[in-house]
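Could you please consider the sequence and fold appended to this message?
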Amino acid sequence: MSDLILRLHEDRLPAGCPPIHLPALPRAVYVRSGGLAVDAHDQGQWLGEGHASVAQDELTLINGTEETVLWRWELTGAGQPGTGDLPSAPAATTLLKLEAPVTLDPRFSWLMRCDRVEFPPAGVALTHVHQGPGIRICLNGEIRIQTLGETHAYPAGEAWFELGHAPVLAPTTERESTTFIRCFLLPRQVKGRSSIRYVHAADAAAKKVQQYRVFAERYINLP
């Protein structure tokens, strides 16, 4: 088994700050607010608010003319540090939202996916599993995660980890719609396909209210 750490950071980049250089790691970047250019050796793209990218190469982040808030997931070996504070951007601030140990079956090759899941008020993800682990963060609303005999509520800005193979029931608040952003690791065979599996046959046949948008997914080499 592979012993890895998945971390989620929140970065605040002041307007016009110098370019930020990040080392090569499996990484997803989601723009919570603002916008910036993401440059790698084989690609370049502008990410506006509500968009994300996934990459493994060295990256340069070039901020725009307003403050940008990023959610940044990185996968490292258990004995390796993440980038943490951004050494090339002393004016930026970084907050570690969550880190979790990850164990992946080495008999599979893996990909990293970043997507968005939206629920109407009082929506629920019926009891299910996924094909791999990941860290989610609530964008708006509130969701309750019931798994392994425990229940925890996550309002906007709060993050949680799911093992993937442990069944989860996830009801959301009745007050408003709920959205979360997710970065998780999946076998490469799942590329372009849903990773969800329902535990109960009746749930598999029931109408689903959640909607998905995949921002990006990329084959990765494990650290």
